[in-house]
Amino acid sequence: MDDKVKTIVENITKMYLEYGIKGVTMDDVAHKLSISKKTLYQYFNDKKELVMAVLELQNKNRNIDFSILEQRDTNAIEELFYYYKIQVQMIKNHKPAFVYDLKKYYPDIFMHFQKIKHKRIIDSVIDNLIKGKKEGLYRDDLDESVISRINLIRVEGIMNSDIFSIEELVSTNLFSEIFRYNLYGIVSDKGRELIQQKFNKNWNQ
């Protein structure tokens, strides 16, 4: 994706997130970008291709860069808190209408990127669990393959149920409780002591 196409996709992404996918036509896009539809179709054959480009860019942007943590020589629990803060920001930017339109009108695209997202999450959780076990911060009897999938199912199940309201689903409080629930289920006595010493007073900072 060259710089010009990337700029176009970034602007369209903002429109989709604000108004939903269905509510934004190719005419709207062309008008917003101050280009003709003919020019727009030089980059994208149809709206489905445009939606695909938006999801590809979002997927790329959601790849978390852990290199800064490697430089700081952080432990597994500190990695989780770093991930937690990123997830809180994603929740604040979550747009239910965008996801709803994607699932309803472009189910094949939705499923394609769901599989990519699931693999990325499971792989990163497994890596963190293995690291935490080696450091003695997590329970040495936990099965990282099972725990990583349980974690994914729990979060996905909550997000796709009607038990919580939309307001609750996008609140940082709900994710904080999920995070605490998961964290205290995997840490060892050593890990629990570390949490109490270093993090409880600064949980939401």
Described by its quaternary structure, the protein is single chain
In whole angstroms, the N-to-C terminal distance is: 36 Å
Major β-sheet annotation: none
- What is the name of the CATH architecture of the largest domain? Orthogonal Bundle
Report the total helices.
12
Helix content: over 70%
What is the H/E order? HHHHHHHHHHHH
Strand content: under 5%
Number of separate structural domains: 2
Mean pLDDT: 87
- Secondary structural class: mainly alpha
Name the poorly predicted regions: none
* Number of E strands: 0
> In CATH terms, what is the fold-level topology of the largest domain?
Tetracycline Repressor, domain 2
Indicate the overall shape: elongated
Radius of gyration: 20 Å
> What is the CATH domain class of the largest domain?
Mainly Alpha
Description:
The protein is an all-alpha fold. The protein folds into two domains: 3-57, Homeodomain-like (Arc Repressor Mutant, subunit A, Orthogonal Bundle); 62-202, Tetracycline Repressor, domain 2, CATH 1.10.357. It is built from twelve helices and no strands. The protein has helices spanning 3-19, 26-33, 37-43, 47-61, 67-72, 76-92, 96-105, 107-134, 144-159, 166-169, 172-186, 189-198. The chain is elongated, with a radius of gyration of 20 Å.
